[in-house]
Design goal:
heterodimer; A: alpha/beta; elongated; B: mainly alpha; MetI-like fold; two-stranded antiparallel sheet
């Protein structure tokens, strides 16, 4: 099916590029708000350049860019070695911004700022902790009167980068979770119910008392949802914020591989928020059309110079300075 | 001239062919009747052939417009192509599904349809919980929607005062036009709390002993999905069965009433019995919609691939797993398994429709609609 569609889409893409310089990208939904804003502003500043971004999901983004259907891709998940080997074009992953995933819940009679350690969250999703009255939740939240009621765990029903980041964190802190569920964009959850999208999970949590789930920080912040604190690797309770996410990235950047494929969940450092992740733009090192390669190169420069400041206004965490400096070097190879 | 000649000969041949056809069709036991028919036919045919020689005004007018033969032939060909295209489309869908799910079919074989594991991480895929969820939610929905739909259509046709008939009929049709995502949203915000706080506890208290209403009830699950499906397919069943009942001749009703039947007896004997094939047809249409419904079901069924006896437990369907996981599916086996889920949905639809047709056949066997 892919193979049949491919020439048609290529033709359509060729037809579209006849006039001005039009680029098409596809991928992750999580950075869609900031990417859309960047691309509009970049077009306004550079007449004749149009960048169109389709937020079809990380998996689809990787599929489309590796089979050269779109000019660039975007993903919340790092490409696997197999995907890199099978790609029709050599790609470089450029971290653009950072995001975080926060635990959300609805508990009648209990305020916000409940504390959850990673292993407690893992055991809620493994079906080992089933009641809010559980001593392990109570131990982390002294003085809070927890209701004696069953927990309803909620997860993302569709494959998503958010689920990947969340399960990546849980797999790191709970060996049991790693062996029974593992990390992935969609996994086999032992208990709970699935809802589609951040809005689906958030809607379910809001409407169901005693529910527990996870959404992206930008979504929780944008909708004034209360979310819990998570214990980081240094043993501190951290409430998610752009600062905490950037701190996690800075802590992880010290031993960052050259291809930026690094997981920064459960990062070291007292300030680091543990459920954080980069999101990447997947850019061809050498585009088939040199003019497009030039646009991508210029855009990435612009992103580092102007775009990052806007990110924090939209609750995306900007890249820490050492990472941004390295990205600048990587960009110079793009043609 | 040449053209005219061919048309004539065509007309003549047709008459001759009709006559020829008649003879072998007659049974040997009834010689007299066919003979008269035959002679009548031949007699009737003779003047036709003669009358053609000077073409009638209508005929020559038509011929001056265009050649009937070409038009007839084109029309016939077009219709055949249209009819055959249905086979072609079904065949294309089937072959695309089979070709693209080859990897999964090779890896899992028949086990795919009997295994209940769905684990993208370890690459182990089975369709049973999805098939279960699709079939059970659709059947439950039909069980709930059919009595409601029939009551509404009977009420509208036989009992309803005229001034109320228009608004109810209009609203029923309006329900059918609402997009399914709106139903889903409505279900999340209105139906789920009702099922959780009002309906669920009552069912648990009085019917808990059956085991179908055990476990914890969060308002999201198989039962809620079936209720929303029932609401969605009810207008389809209701409006079609109303049209079918409307088509029952008024004499049937009058006859029943004249024989002293009460109103209910009249509805049962003359309306429902005569319309039952059409009613079953409307139920099959509703079932078809329920099987393929994706969005609204995904929003309230809980999307948890498990087979549970309790109707409060979350479940999932074939259509919703495709909608949920296709865009983010990485890896060839995962994609291939999702396409095989599509194949499973295709087969389930065929099997369920086949069973429904058998049911129609069993109900109507040996009877015409009228004679019952």
């Amino acid at each position: 099916m892919k193979a049949k569609l491919f020439p048609v889409v290529m033709l359509a893409a060729l037809a579209a590029t006849a006039g001005a310089q039009n680029l098409t990208g596809a991928g992750a939904t999580f950075p869609n708000p900031i990417y859309s804003r960047w691309f509009i502003e970049y077009s306004n500043a550079h007449p004749g350049v149009k960048i169109n971004y389709q937020s079809v999901g990380s998996g689809a983004g990787i599929r489309q860019v590796t089979s050269k259907i779109v000019d660039f891709g975007a993903s919340d998940v790092t490409m696997t070695d197999q995907q890199i080997a099978e790609s029709k074009i050599k790609l470089v992953a450029i971290p653009s911004v950072l995001g975080a995933v926060v635990p959300v819940y609805t508990l009648p009679g209990v305020g916000s700022d409940l504390k959850f350690s990673g292993d407690v969250i893992a055991d809620i999703y493994l079906g080992k902790i089933t009641n809010w009255h559980d001593p392990r939740i109570a131990k982390d939240n002294p003085g809070v009167n927890l209701p004696d009621h069953q927990i309803l765990p909620v997860y993302r029903s569709e494959g998503s980068g958010t689920t990947f980041i969340f399960t990546d964190f849980l797999s790191k802190v709970s060996p049991d979770f790693l062996s029974k569920v593992g990390r992935g964009a969609s996994v086999r959850w032992p208990v709970g119910i699935g809802q589609k999208g951040n809005e689906g999970v958030a809607g379910m949590i809001r409407n169901s008392p005693y529910s527990f789930g996870y959404v992206e920080l930008i979504y929780a912040a944008g909708n004034n949802m209360s979310y819990g604190l998570v214990r980081n690797a240094a043993g501190k309770w951290i409430k998610a914020s752009t600062g905490g996410v950037t701190a996690a990235a800075a802590a992880a950047s010290k031993n960052m591989p050259a291809d930026y494929r690094v997981s920064i969940t459960n990062a070291a450092g007292p300030e680091s928020y543990p459920i954080s992740s980069f999101t990447w733009l997947l850019i061809p090192v050498k585009s088939d059309d040199p003019a497009k390669g030039k646009v991508l190169h210029d855009f990435l420069q612009w992103m580092l110079d102007h775009g990052e400041d806007e990110a924090s206004q939209m609750t995306y965490a900007p890249l820490p300075k050492p990472v941004a400096d390295r990205v600048r070097q990587t960009i110079s190879q793009i043609q | 001239m040449r053209l005219k000649f061919t048309v004539y000969s065509h007309g003549f041949n047709k008459v001759a062919w009709e006559n020829a056809e008649r003879v072998p069709m007659n049974k040997p036991g009834s010689i007299q009747l066919p003979q008269t028919v035959l002679s009548e036919r031949t007699q009737a045919a003779e003047p036709v052939v003669e009358a053609i020689k000077p073409p009638s005004i209508v005929r020559s007018f038509l011929q001056s417009k265009s050649s009937g033969k070409v038009a007839d032939g084109t029309f016939w060909g077009l219709m055949i192509v249209c009819a055959l295209s249905i086979f072609l489309i079904v065949l294309l869908i089937l072959s695309v599904l089979v070709v693209n799910s080859k990897l999964s079919i090779h890896t899992f074989g028949w086990k795919f349809f009997t295994s209940s594991s769905w684990d993208p991480n370890s690459g182990d895929f089975g369709a049973l919980p999805f098939i279960w969820g699709t079939v059970v939610s659709s059947l439950l929905a039909v069980c709930m929607a059919v009595p409601l739909a029939l009551c509404v259509s009977i009420f509208l046709l036989e009992i309803c005062p005229l001034w109320l008939r228009g608004p109810i009929a209009f609203l029923t049709e309006l329900l059918a036009a609402i997009p399914s995502v709106i139903y889903g949203l409505w279900a999340i915000f209105i139906l789920v709390p009702i099922m959780r706080d009002n309906v669920g506890p009552v069912l648990q208290k009085y019917l808990g002993w059956t085991g179908f209403f055990g476990g914890s009830n969060f308002g999201v699950g198989m039962l809620t999905a079936s209720v929303i499906l029932a609401i969605m397919i009810f207008p389809v069943i209701s409006s079609i069965s109303r049209d079918v009942m409307k088509a029952v001749p008024i004499h049937q009703r009058e006859a029943a009433l004249a024989l002293g039947a009460t109103r209910w007896e009249m509805i049962r004997m003359s309306v429902l019995r005569n319309a039952r094939i059409g009613i079953v047809g409307s139920v099959i249409l509703g079932l078809g919609r329920a099987l393929g419904e994706t969005m609204a079901v995904t929003m309230v069924i809980g999307n948890h691939p498990d087979i549970s006896k309790s109707l409060f437990a979350p479940a999932t369907t074939l259509a919703s797993v495709i909608a949920n996981e296709f865009s983010e599916a990485t890896g060839d086996l995962y994609l291939s398994a999702l396409i095989e889920i599509g194949l499973a949905l295709f087969l389930v639809t065929i099997v369920v429709n086949g069973i429904a047709r058998l049911l129609v056949w069993a109900v109507t066997r040996g009877n015409t609609a009228r004679a019952a």
